[in-house]
Structure formats: structure tokens, C-alpha cells
Amino acid sequence: MFTFSGCAKEPNWPSTTSPDANFPATAGEIRAVFEDECEAMVRGDSDALNELLTYEFTLTHMTGYVQPKDEWMDDVRTHQMQYHSMGQVDLVADLDAGAPVLTARTITDATIWGGRGTWQLQLRSWFENIDGEWLISRTVASVW
Fold first, then answer.
1. pTM value?
2. What's the domain range around 104?
């Protein structure tokens, strides 16, 4: 397990083998995908987000609502979900689980279905290797 603080990318994180020995996951790779996701969310770039997520991706909101990928992409595209900023407070990568998991604590300023707020979000994301690329397969959001 590796702990990150702040937003700076570290170039040489230790490597740990994932359950698929042909595609070892490193904490740096997992972190980079998450950071790319955050940046795409703030830009409102649903096309870039789509490239970072598996086909079966779901987002579980802090309300418990499980949103399919296509619906979330549509909400981002139409600004029903608009992310104004996402400050990273803490990132922890667990590469020893059945699949790599990243738990992030963020301060997120967003307008969600018409209501704007700032939340201390914990985003727990699971990763899957598809054709040699690490993609996010599921994210569960809660408050911390």
C-alpha cells in the first residue's frame, strides 16, 4: 500500500504485480489514470473520461445511486454534473487486492443536477487492465 499527498506526480513509484502477472500495476500508473480522470471531470470532457473508464463502469454516488457510465457521460456532456475543482488531499493505492484500488480524498466543488456545493469526497476506484491499459471499472463516492 502506498500513500500520496498533494497533487505532484512522482516518476518512480515501486512496482507491485497485479493478479494478472502479464500486466504489473504500479502505484504511479494507477495514480496517473485517476489524475487524468479528475482533470477531465473539471474540464467537462466526457470524451476523455470515456477513454479512462471500462465499458461496464459504474459510479456509485454518495446517495447510493449507482449510475451507469453512459448516463454519467451524458450528465457531464450536458452540464447536469459540472465539476468546478477537485483538490486532492490524500491518495492511497492498494495493489495487493484482487484488482488495484485507489482511495482518494478530495475537496470537490461541483454543481450536481442544479445544486452547487463543496464536498469532502472519498472516491474509491477499482482498476482493470484492458489490452495493456489500466482503466477504472468502478468508483464509489462517499463523504469523509
1. 0.83
2. 2-6+23-143
